[in-house]
Amino acid sequence: xxxxxxxxxxxxxxxxxxxxxxxxxxQSTAFFNVNHGNERRTMDWxxxxxxxxxxxxxxxxxxxxxxxxxxxxxxxxxxxxxxxxRDDYQGQGVGSxxxxxxxxxxxxxxxxxxxxxxxxxxxAARRLYEKHGFEALGTHPSGEILYLKRxxxxxxxx
Length: 158
Ligand SMILES: CC(C)(COP(=O)(O)OP(=O)(O)OC[C@H]1O[C@@H](n2cnc3c(N)ncnc32)[C@H](O)[C@@H]1OP(=O)(O)O)[C@@H](O)C(=O)NCCC(=O)NCCS
Prior knowledge:
CATH class: Alpha Beta
Radius of gyration: 15 Å
Number of domains: 1
Largest sheet: 4 strands, antiparallel
Oligomer: single chain
CATH superfamily: Gcn5-related N-acetyltransferase (GNAT)
Bound molecules: coenzyme A
CATH architecture: 3-Layer(aba) Sandwich
Structural class: alpha+beta
Strand order of the largest sheet: 1-2-3-4
Number of helices: 6
Helix content: 25-40%
Number of strands: 7
């Protein structure tokens, strides 16, 4: 694979991010962008009043936004996250790269963990999360599975 870069989303990414959401296939959209909620929140970031305590990141390959990850409730010790990879880049390690990049970033900032929820039948996502140490805690009131990844502080890693 070409070089892959993890970086914060930038104001100049607006067209690319719209293309990213437009390019998600039917299944990816059903899992990741129900009612266009994630798309709306991401695209709002480019407007006048981005939501507080939300951060947006991308995985870029050869100038293309191949993957996208965001976190929110960053004013708590355990923020939530969401992740998606463009259909034509899935199965090539982009999702794993985004997660390990995020773990490093959040550990260096002293966060205690990351929460997420995913559909019971989202096998690809569940395997990805479990491979990277997320523990299934049970069923969230939404009916989705609730996952927690516990992070170690740099102090504990020494
Ligand atoms: C889930 C998703 C982010 C995975 O990203 P990806 O870049 O394709 O994943 P990777 O190539 O990094 O694969 C990492 C691991 O994920 C799991 N995985 C990925 N695709 C899989 C598939 N189609 N079936 C089963 N497991 C899969 C495997 O455990 C894999 O590890 P392995 O290659 O050692 O077997 C991607 O499929 C996606 O964007 N799906 C649509 C959006 C979505 O569902 N987002 C999550 C909503 S909660």
